[in-house]
Amino acid sequence: MVTMNSSMSGMVNSFSRFLLGTIVMFIYIVITKKSFKPNRFKHIFIRSAFNSISIMLFSLGFQYTTITNANMLQMTYPVFVLILAPIIYKDKIKKSSYLYLGTIMLGCYLVAFPDFSSVNIGDVYSILSSIAAAISILSLKEAGKYDESHIIIFYVMLLATIINLPFVIKDLAMPDTKVLLDIILSAVTGVLGQVFITMGYKYVDNATGAIVSASRILIAAILGIVLFSDPLNSRVVFGGIVIILALIGISGYFDRYKKTNV
């Protein structure tokens, strides 16, 4: 709504989210008298940088493609986790995961359906966002071995605010007040999403968490159709179903289900 109703860049949404998150986490750490000192800053910095890049690209994607496409393509980040994990951290990958990898790529093709003569730049931004998110997730796993969640979230928000600042100075200098409420709502819901997913993963396993997270594709599609009249056809629906099923498969849910029913 910000980008549709004003000339402001979509990155003003990511900046507002990170700025609000920094303020909230700073207040939380001060009130609870926790330490600001990280044990291993390297992984936190990598997590911060690539998380910032991912959100920035994701925000740009909304400017040029549909809500449905942006979410579907950005949610393919497990594919790139699968590709990069053995390279960066020497993780072992199940052979079946590569089948899901191919399935997700098929789903992405159905959703974006590029003709290669006029590729939608918004779809490209969303896929690049997915790659950055994968590196961010891998770094988060390592950061979590050395530092507590509040430290990681605080520095992720703080560094991302700094990284975003040069790209939104123009918008901040001449803000469009008619979309101010939308910017605030974007920031608040973005921070709440980060808080709830962090809290939620304490009570569910990774497989269940992945399935719930993948439901964002369906929710985004519904909101896109209702609020923004996004086009929806059988190809996009089928592509979305393919992506969701493959993401569930990568999470290990199907293997776990088989074991519990043997």
From TrEMBL:
Parts of the chain that traverse the membrane: 15-32, 44-64, 70-89, 98-116, 122-140, 152-173, 179-197, 209-229, 235-254
Key word rRNA-binding present: no
Protein name: Permease of the drug/metabolite transporter (DMT) superfamily
Pfam families, sorted: EamA
Origin organism lineage: Bacteria, Bacillati, Bacillota, Tissierellia, Tissierellales
Keyword terms of this UniProt record: Membrane, Transmembrane, Transmembrane helix
Keyword Membrane: yes
Limits of the EamA domain: 6-112, 121-251
Family: Belongs to the EamA transporter family.
SUPFAM superfamilies: Multidrug resistance efflux transporter EmrE
Organism: Tissierella praeacuta DSM 18095
Annotated GO CC locations: membrane
